[in-house]
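Listing S7. Sequence submitted for prediction.
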Amino acid sequence: MTNAWLQQQRKGALTEIADHVGLKNVERYKKIDLEVALEEHLRANSSKLSSDSKVAPFFYTVDPLSPLKQDPTTRAVQTVEKEKKPRARRQTIKAREELDGGDDAESSALTKTPSRALSFARSVPLPPSPAVLANQIDVHTTTVRASISNYVSNSPLPPFLDSVRNFLSTVTGIELLTLFVEIYGLNSEILPRKYLTTFPAVPALGTSEFPIKAPDFFALLTTAFWGPFGLWLLTSVFLPLLGGWFINLKGEGGFDAVSFNAVKAITAWVVYVRGGGPSASTRVVERGVPGGSAGLLVGAGVGALAGIYEAVLLK
């Protein structure tokens, strides 16, 4: 949070204050950003702006303990109290001198000790009040949040996320995402993990030992890999691409998404549901692909709906 006095002002009043203190180019700021910029400018120029009556309330709320930033009414009351105290102190010292009646220089020094102690106490910086401390924490929190926001907005992350979203909002992106989910699930079945070593437990972190495994790439030389992978590649990629190219309902170049997914759904139904493919490879593909044969049909249905929706939007 920014300074309490700045928060109470409307944006128009904050703009007038910014013009008054010499802060330029504030029209593009939002109210919270204008409050932060004003607070930083007033703090940086407090030596010459603290006596300005237009912004004096800002300095009253920044550090209530500082004698240079107190409210004028409070300062007047303290002045009257200071004028009353010396008279009472002189009377006390005079009474002590009459009672002691001729003590040495040490006794005289002791009578002056209270004023020295008060002077020393005034020079010692006192801790701020809880309200001032909370205000400072809010100011620093706002500054850190603004810095993080600026860093994120200037980093390459937002453009990257926008490009990913734009790509996944196309029919091609949806088809590639569906194929990635299928091959990722199939990977655990056709490319087994091989044990390498065991990571020891770390008592300081409270972790237990766990095995480290890596894909066994020697499986690429066996039919146990190429049989299921080739069957999935044929039924989910090659045959649908062939059908989407020959049966092009859009009448344009390239592949038709609706025809692609229609051929994919028919092929999946014949091979996996009706058992038209090799039994061993078919079972591996059904175990690996999320949802099995039903998952393949659902993926084809989602792709077909996306193609139809795109065709309707282009009309």
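Caption to Listing S7: primary sequence and predicted structure tokens for the chain studied. The first strand starts at residue 193 and ends at 199. Residues 72-100 form the longest helix (29 residues).
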